[in-house]
Records
---
Amino acid sequence: MFKKYRVLKWISVFILFLIVATISFVFWVRSILPPVDHRLQATTIKEISYISENSIPPRGKILAVVTSVDTMGENTKSTGYELTELSRPYYVFKANGFEVDIASTKGGKAPVVIDDEDMGSFDYAFLNDTKAQQKTTNTIAIENVEPEEYQAIYFVGGKGTMFDFPNNKTIQSIVKEYYQTNKVIGAVCHGPSALVNVRLDNGKSLLESKNVSGFTNEEELFLIPEAKEIFPFLLQDKLTEQGAIFNKGLMYLDKISHDNNLITGQNPWSTWSLAEKMIEQLGYTPKFRDKTDEENAVDVLVVYKTEGKAKAKEIIKNLILSEYKPINRILIAKHAIIGAMDWKLGDFTNLMSLVSFIKDCESKKK
């Protein structure tokens, strides 16, 4: 009997220890993450100097194309275009002298996906921009687009694109015409689904032997394990099947491919570099822009993944204490969680310690 009670006692102590440890860990995590800055939600374009100051004379127009699909096929889960994949290039294009029109496969109001955790000043400014919102509410039907009016076309990502971009004949026609006349074509994340059925005048697939990036199988299946049943295809598989040389970068980090006038990006974190590469391909030096805290976090994560924790700390110290640049702690914490979900507990502990290190560096800067 007494032995039984001793066992119960130690089980109770162990459970109590786990509860205390869990609560302590939660409080520690909350202490190293920044509070939500609700002031960002009121950001306007006038407050972003990159947009409002040192205007560049008009250089022409770029067409951004978004999906009209608001659910994932027969699945009831909602979808649409990704806001950050439209808002950020929209202002890069405008800051570099290009007017931006927005089209969709059906026209009218386009369904949008907004992830609050990924929102930054540019994204909130877009939501508060009356002209931009008028364009997303009244998108041009792709069949009514006048292709000759634009110097480039940009296909915005979002899971809805997998259902209405690939078989749209007007999209295929415009992409073929632009590619063959050397106009710039850009696409990010799921946006390259617009390219999969394009045939050139010589009968070959546009994608044949082209260096291309897009949302990877690994990224897709990690988020949606049943993706093969939901989508008509996995984007990486389809691009490869049609002859593309698929360039896969690190999971959920910046990666673009540049093949002459065709520029593609792997995921939402590729959006900034893709938009500015399109400006370069159009023949211009992109207007100077301070990197966002999210981009700096991506740089830290790339260094961590490729060179290790010690080197990542060096980059953090340099960014914060020497260059006075911000780093998005939440994004690094999200990658720590991804590591834990993938049973890479070393990545989880290392990345959470980097989040804490960033906070300590920020305290020293003050």
---
Amino acid sequence: MANDLLKGKVGIITGALDENSIAWKTALKAHEQGARFVLTNAPLAMRMGAIKELAEQTNSIVIPADATSLEDIEKLYTEAKEHLGGNFDFILHSIGMSTNIRKGKSYGDLNHEWALKSYDVSGLSFHKMMQVAEKMDVMNEWGSILALSYIAAQRVFPFYTDMAEAKALLENIARGYGYRFGKLKKVRVNTISQSPTRTTAGSGIDGFNEFFDIADLMSPLGNASAEACAEYIVMMFSDYTRMVTMQNLFHDGGYSFTGVSEELMEMVRKSG
């Protein structure tokens, strides 16, 4: 139900690949709530996805940009500002990539060149986007900048390998820049640690299906869906969360604070 939570707000949404992605669902929800925005993704990802279809559904435009390139980010902000008619109220960083995971490399056999690329794409790009935003002065006061994270930044998940460090870097950047941007322009910066979600990227991780089921059993509310996460992001873009910053916000049905569930214990009993 539309109630114009984001009426009059404009921004940038990165990382929408297909209808399964959180960024895609966020764009639909933000549009429903009255926002105007520009969609962006890396040129390669755009060729793989259907982002132009999303742009048509949301009356937005697509501006290709590599988030690891300062020059591309500058071009993105310049063109987006021209299209939207002013500075931004929100930015969503929904970007992640690990060649090591895609190639099935274990944590003890990482290709370190690939790992550095993972850290750049999945973590450092968040700093780059905010650094350029600060230097170009493109954020409105009381704006909201968000990135999508995962609990592997705090806990060990063997299948998540180098992406765990990338997410830890991402969350620390949110704290560092959250302080800086708060002082500069009252802009808030947060990360959202989402449940395992059946996105194109997430489903490609070895062991994902098994862990999805385990997390669902562990969470008192069950796994949070991509659509529910999109609704949470919209709330974080809205004026109702103006005093929330420098936080890693768990959106996982309670998984992050559950030691063990009765359902999981019953499974172990039966298997024994």
---
Amino acid sequence: MTETSPYVPPKVWKWEAENGGTFAKTNRPIAGSMHEQELPVGNHPLQLHSLATPNGVKVTVMLEELLEAGHSGAEYDAYVIKIGDGDQFGSGFVDINPNSKIPALVDRSTAIPTRVFESGSILLYLAEKFGAFLPKDHAKRTEAMNWLFWQMGSAPYLGGGFGHFYAYAPEKFEYAIDRFAMETKRQMDVLDRHLADNQYMAGDEYSIADMAIWAWYGALALGRLYDAGEFLDVASYKNVVRWAEEIGKRPAVIRGRKVNRVNGPLEDQLHERHDASDFDTKTQDKVAAE
């Protein structure tokens, strides 16, 4: 049995080889575009370039909720960014998000098109633009913002931490999985305790905080994330499960989950969205049937 020597970090780290794992070919230590690639432009004021990861789902759910609530100005074109193919490093996408992460939005209804990146920023931008899904009451608004920023700060421990080492890393490392499983369960307990006394994150009013947290922690509670439901015993967080199931039944949420999705059941994949009718005619099961 051979023993491996413990890793000793060099004095100066250098990028000398891909580190393996699912996203090895898309991770690099520098910013900027890698190739020329213009972004398409549709007919609607809002142009979304995204993928149905949890961060992408936050925004498509918000857009569908706005349309469901009668805000016709929220009509949008959604184009898929295939991060496995490196679309996020195309020149057009880098122009609207220099951080090369989905989602990114362009609002062409403004005098000069407005770029909006970072999912929390997009949610807040849309909530303020349409005066929706952000409480007017000062205390409730503050509570919604508290939880929105909680999610933005906490999810990297779930996604980049637990999800990476549990599902995507080239090897299973007990220390890393234990470390981030512990933190993920602590975060689920934070939510479970809060939702024991509240219907939604900001009390009795559904808001962008719910959309942001549901895309990550709701998916986890419903067993849709990293195939880790049993491992993390998510069913024990009964208040989170109740909340996740309630939100998951909303028509706009059901639609929003499908937009820019390129995996899973074909009927749940709508690669691009340009019109409400696309949900009935252009999901991948319909495309395949043609």
